Every structure is written in C-alpha cells, then in structure tokens.
Amino acid sequence: MNRELLTKPFARELIKERAGPHGKRVRYVDIHTVIQRLNEGSDDWSFEIVNHEILETEVIVLGRLTLGGVTKCAFGGSLIEGSTVGDSLKAAGADALKKSASMFGVGLELYHSKVAPEQTRSPAAAHPEADPKDRATVRQMSALQSAARRRGLTQDRLSAMVRARTGKTELALLDRHEASNLISELSGTNGTSH
C-alpha cells in the first residue's frame, strides 16, 4: 500500500461542487476517480456492501473497504426520488466506498471545511477525527442508524445532531464513546429526551 499516493490531494480540475444539506456547498470527486486512486495506491483492495436498507424515500448501505489487510466501514445513502431503487443502491454504494476510502486518507481534504476562528479553540472542532483504534464500531453505527429511524430522524437531522453534540461532520468520524452516548440519547436510556 502506498499511503503517500493514497493521501495525495486531488488535482483541482477533478474536484466538483454540488448543493448539499442546509444550503451548503459540498466538494466531491466522482467514484471512478476514487477507484482509480485506490488502484494506483494498492493492488490489494476490495469493497463489499455488508448491509442495505430500502426506506420509503432513501436507501442506506453499509460498505466495507479492505485495503492492505486493514478494513474500514462507512454508511452511504441516496434518495430514491426520480430514480430506480437499483440506481439509488448503486449511488449509495459509491457514497459508502468514497467515505470508506476517506478513512484511508483518499480525498480526505474534501471533507475539511473552513472553520471560523472562534471554533478553532474547541478540541472537537480542531480535531474532528477519532483515533482509528477508537472509532465507532460497525455495530454501533448500525445501532445509531436504527435508533435514529425509530425516532423518525432523517439523515440530515441525525447529521445535525451529531454536529451539535460532537462537532464532527461525519458519522464515520465518531469515536466509540460518542457513538454510545448518541445511541443512549436516541434510545432514551440516558435520561435525556430528544
């Protein structure tokens, strides 16, 4: 595995922008660009969809990327509106692969946003990533998604809750303790209410 190549920032011409949640702009690269980077950085990688769920308006998948004997998992999602369930599942799978690859440093620069100076004093804002050994487990991520669905939370509302509670912009960046606290809160087992 060539970590230096995997983590090399993408050329500016490969980076695209689209509208994201809450009126924000999201930077991204196409899935074929991520696959090409994985191929260049390692000849020993594989990706599989571990689980998928088809909801009324969206699909959610849990993907597992193994690279050089190390495995990272991430959720991906896609709205169904205007497309077939199959196309939505493909888009959600691509989303999960990109997020999993970012845990190896592929395109990680795309997830960084400019932070206001007053936010840089917050440890959560300054260091949003959990130590890889302490990241939330796949079981915790699944439990968190299930608890959110039981409470009727959309992905956007869950993401907003995660940002408000932890300062982190992605569920995949949660550590085990943060995930556990969020699961307890959503399940109503810690004495707090939603």
Describe this structure in words.
The protein is an alpha+beta fold and 194 residues long. It has 2 domains: 1-112, DNA repair protein Rad52/59/22 (Enolase-like, domain 1); 117-188, no CATH class. 38% of the residues lie in helices and 20% in strands. It contains 7 helices and 5 strands, in the order αββαβββααααα. The strands form 2 sheets. It has a 3-stranded antiparallel β-sheet with strand order 3-4-5. Strands 1-2 form a two-stranded antiparallel sheet. Helix 5 (138-150) runs parallel beside helix 7. It starts with a helix and ends in a 7-residue tail after the last helix.
Secondary-structure map with pairings?
Blueprint: H1 3-6, E1 16-19, E2 25-28, H2 31-41, E3 45-54, E4 58-67, E5 70-79, H3 85-102, H4 123-126, H5 138-150, H6 155-166, H7 176-187
Antiparallel strand pairs: 1-2, 3-4, 4-5
Helix pairs in contact: 5-7
